[in-house]
Design goal:
This protein is mainly α. Helix content is 77%, strand content 0%.
Length: 145
């Protein structure tokens, strides 16, 4: 058998749901941060015009909200990068990714029903489905004891 074919067959399968979960996890925070810039443009322009350093104080709720909105977008993007790296390295979506997204989505959706929290719930469920499929496939491929 050709060696390149055998090596090719050992590469992780990154098709289907396990490919789309990280993509969605990267797309949602990009949209989140774009919305944050548009909605909070006046606050961000004030922060920039104040010179950035010490421009957000604890008593300025609109600026704090704008800042934490962006920070949460960056954190979610980071989680998406980690999920993408895991899929590339192992061919599987980590189960923890789905649970984290589901927990965050439920919390956000309960506290603010008209929000993007629902997208986190959807992606969390998709991640859990993908990780379950990956686990089932791994169990099938494992040799019997």
């Amino acid at each position: 058998m050709n060696t390149s074919i055998r090596l090719e067959s050992r590469k992780p399968d990154t098709r289907g749901l396990r490919l789309w979960v990280p993509r969605l996890m990267l797309a949602v925070p990009v949209v989140h941060m774009m919305v944050g810039v548009v909605v909070s443009y006046s606050h961000w322009s004030g922060i920039v015009s104040d010179g950035l350093w010490n421009a957000v104080h604890n008593d300025n709720d609109p600026r704090m909200t704008a800042l934490w909105f962006m920070i949460s977008g960056v954190a979610l993007f980071g989680l998406g990068l980690l999920a993408r790296r895991s899929v590339i390295a192992t061919g599987a979506v980590p189960t923890e990714t789905g649970w984290i997204l589901l927990a965050l989505g439920i919390l956000v959706s309960v506290l603010e029903p008209v929000s993007g929290g629902w997208s986190l719930i959807v992606i969390g469920v998709l991640a859990l489905v993908a990780s379950r499929r990956d686990g089932d496939a791994a169990d099938f491929e494992r040799p019997a004891p």
